[in-house]
Design goal:
4 strands; alpha+beta; 3 helices; Gyrase A, domain 2; 19% strand; four-stranded antiparallel sheet
Amino acid sequence: MACSATTPKLTEEEIQERLSRLSGWVRGEDWIQKKYEFKNFLRAMSFVNAVAYLAESLNHHPDILINYNEVTLLNWTHAAGGITEYDFDLAEKVEAMIEKTN
């Protein structure tokens, strides 16, 4: 199922409960975010490419900020205008991907 303008946004309680299960993720204004730091620019870009493939497979795409060896992911459901289940699903899958590579 694709997200849309009718995708329900999570309540503040649901957001806080889900954040408590994710290491390093924090609440932004209408998104959840995490900053990752890598050894160098190439490692950061490898991570960005891996996230891009993952996001494409889920049809749910984060905003990605790149600053040399730091990458910040901002997950929010653009169509719904806020934080939904899709954002946490993507965050959990990114974390699982990171765990496999470490």
